[in-house]
């Protein structure tokens, strides 16, 4: 049987990040820690980042939630590691635009993140996808 | 009762969602509205709209008659002894907050107890947490059995002579547990406490007789029983309401206003500050007529059958865990192994099936169940066994889909 509608959302790479999350755990040593949850559905994430000289040296997360929120967190940590904070914030902006259904044109390497493009067609799930990015932004701004 | 004929009265149900006929299984969140309710609100705005209780003109009288007529319909629907005991509110939440603010703060002191359960909706927990903090009273919980029910022995153990308020749902919005309100009221009264019943999931589905139950307060929402959003009811025993202060002050609720002091109207209006929810009340009145025409007992019987059928069918699916007691209201809360409930709900939605996923405003209960979230399918008089079959079919397809992508 075909699941055309669902296939646009649940891409293989998303399910891979969900089942085998990258950067799950806690950062060794000092880090800035952000807790964030989605009060309407109960998804929660704890993001830890190690920032040195304006560069994200390490990023890890723990949490509980649906495939979209957890795979997005996995992809996000992968994407921002080694990036300058400004670039990480730019990526977050791009990601928000992507969730609004806009085409993304950038030199930044978004890696697996583009697999989440289909979420824009599922308005009820956009908050799942943006949870980790919101946590990252909050952490950076608190810093 | 012919659910298929009743279904024809709900125009919203006749549509396709994501290329499939809509199967609406989220009535515990809000029910759909039948034609007579939609038309009553429409007609009110087309012909009778005016402010109530002050217009000398004809429209003012018509609006007042309709508004107060709706109150009388509510009175009969719950068998209150007088319309003075029927206060229109914005919904269950406002009704509970009125009691928790007005009654509780005037009557509670340090050492007193408020008794609730861990399975309450947030709207029957947080107002009591706030009342406890404001007065120094203590919040206590009747323990839950493994299946999510409570026992009267535990209730007797928890409710003591220090207990001043017992607050409990008529029907749990997650587990579907139907609580023995009459017996709980007796225990509360033996200890000198009052009992408030959160009837949000009760009044739409089960015949309510507040005098027979002997509850002191009963709160419910119109929108879960075919009426518009934004209208609800607080029932309270007259002698209690008479001694309570309003929590909202302004127009409509006053008797005399002087420069430094004012007096209040009599019941029920002293609790209805500001222009009331007139069209909502008219819609609620029409919804009550509609429910009465079908018959609350018929609705309850139909839902009992449906609930039995869904339990039988859903259990045939490998990997489905159902929460709550065997004897339940017409809803089923469950999880599918290895698939998060949001993903279940998105998958079902792609087949046109609307269910709720999340914590259902019951975070303490989710903690007790040791899950972050669950999926819930809930039924009303317009649902049929075919809807249950669609749900089961949808869950099998969901399993297949997620089984393949992993």
From TrEMBL, chain A:
Q: Which domain of life is it from?
A: Bacteria
GO BP annotations, alphabetical order: iron-sulfur cluster assembly
Q: Which Pfam families match?
A: NifU_N
GO terms for MF: iron ion binding; iron-sulfur cluster binding
| Segments crossing the lipid bilayer | none
Q: Taking every annotated instance into account, which residue ranges of this chain make up the domain NIF system FeS cluster assembly NifU N-terminal?
A: 10-128
Q: Which family does it belong to?
A: Belongs to the NifU family.
PANTHER family attached to this UniProt entry: IRON-SULFUR CLUSTER ASSEMBLY ENZYME NIFU HOMOLOG
Q: What is this protein called?
A: Modular FeS cluster scaffolding protein NifU
Taxonomic source organism? Oceanobacillus limi
Automatic annotation (TrEMBL), chain B:
GO terms for MF: cysteine desulfurase activity; lyase activity; pyridoxal phosphate binding
Source species of the chain: Oceanobacillus limi
Name any cofactors this protein relies on: pyridoxal 5'-phosphate
**What function is annotated for this protein?**
Catalyzes the removal of elemental sulfur and selenium atoms from L-cysteine, L-cystine, L-selenocysteine, and L-selenocystine to produce L-alanine.
Q: Which GO terms describe its biological process?
A: cysteine metabolic process
Q: Which family does it belong to?
A: Belongs to the class-V pyridoxal-phosphate-dependent aminotransferase family. Csd subfamily.
Q: What is this protein called?
A: Cysteine desulfurase
UniProt-listed Enzyme Commission number(s): 2.8.1.7
> Pfam families this protein is in?
Aminotran_5
Where is each Aminotransferase class V domain found?
23-391
Q: What class of enzyme is it?
A: transferase
Query: So what does this thing catalyse?
Result: (sulfur carrier)-H + L-cysteine = (sulfur carrier)-SH + L-alanine
């Amino acid at each position: 049987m075909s699941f055309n509608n669902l296939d646009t959302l649940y891409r293989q790479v998303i399910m891979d990040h969900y089942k085998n999350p990258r950067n799950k755990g806690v950062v060794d040593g000092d880090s800035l820690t952000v807790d964030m949850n989605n009060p309407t559905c109960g998804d929660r994430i704890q993001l830890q980042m190690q920032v040195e000289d304006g560069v994200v040296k390490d990023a890890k997360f723990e949490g509980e939630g649906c495939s979209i929120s957890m795979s997005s967190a996995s992809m996000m940590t992968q994407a921002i590691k080694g990036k300058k904070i400004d670039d990480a914030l730019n990526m977050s902006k791009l990601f928000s635009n992507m969730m609004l259904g806009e085409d993304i044109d950038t030199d930044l390497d978004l890696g697996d993140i583009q697999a989440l493009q289909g979420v824009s067609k599922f308005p009820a799930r956009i908050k799942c996808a943006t949870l980790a990015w919101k946590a990252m932004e909050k952490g950076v701004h608190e810093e | 009762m012919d659910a298929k004929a009743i279904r024809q009265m709900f125009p919203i149900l006749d549509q396709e969602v994501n290329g499939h006929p809509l199967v609406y299984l989220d009535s515990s969140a809000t029910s759909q509205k039948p034609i007579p309710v939609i038309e009553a609100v429409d007609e009110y705005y087309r012909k009778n709209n005016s402010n109530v209780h002050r217009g000398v003109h004809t429209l003012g009288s018509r609006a007042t008659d309709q508004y107060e007529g709706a109150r009388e319909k509510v009175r009969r629907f719950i068998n209150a002894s007088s319309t003075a005991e029927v206060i229109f509110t914005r919904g269950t939440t406002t009704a509970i907050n009125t009691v928790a603010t007005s009654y509780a703060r005037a009557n509670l002191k340090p050492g007193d107890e408020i008794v609730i359960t861990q399975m309450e909706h947030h709207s029957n927990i947080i107002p009591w947490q706030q009342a406890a903090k404001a007065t120094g009273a203590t919040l206590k919980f009747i323990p839950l059995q493994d299946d999510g029910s409570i026992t009267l022995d535990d209730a007797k153990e928890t409710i003591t002579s220090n207990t001043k308020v017992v607050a409990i749902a008529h029907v749990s919005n997650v587990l579907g547990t139907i609580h023995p309100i009459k017996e709980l009221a007796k225990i509360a009264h033996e200890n000198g406490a009052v009992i408030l019943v959160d009837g949000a999931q009760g009044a739409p589905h089960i015949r309510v007789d507040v005098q027979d139950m002997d509850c002191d307060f009963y709160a419910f929402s119109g929108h879960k029983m075919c009426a518009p959003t934004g209208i609800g009811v607080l029932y309270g025993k007259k002698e209690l309401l008479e001694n309570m202060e309003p929590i909202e002050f302004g127009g409509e609720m006053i008797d005399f206003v002087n420069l430094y002091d004012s007096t209040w109207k009599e019941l029920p209006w002293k609790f209805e500050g500001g222009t009331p929810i007139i069209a909502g009340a008219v819609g609620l009145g029409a919804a009550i007529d509609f429910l009465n025409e079908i018959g609350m007992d018929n609705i309850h019987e139909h839902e009992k059958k449906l609930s039995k059928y869904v339990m039988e069918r859903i259990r045939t699916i490998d990997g489905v865990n159902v929460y709550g007691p065997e004897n339940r209201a017409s809803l089923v809360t469950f999880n599918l192994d290895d698939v998060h409930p949001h993903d279940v709900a998105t998958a079902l939605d792609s087949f046109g099936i609307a269910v709720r996923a999340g914590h259902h405003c019951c975070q303490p209960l989710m903690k007790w169940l040791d899950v972050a979230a669950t999926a819930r399918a809930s039924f009303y008089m317009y649902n049929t066994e075919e809807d249950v079959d669609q749900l089961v079919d949808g869950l099998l397809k969901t399993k297949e889909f997620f089984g393949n992508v992993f």
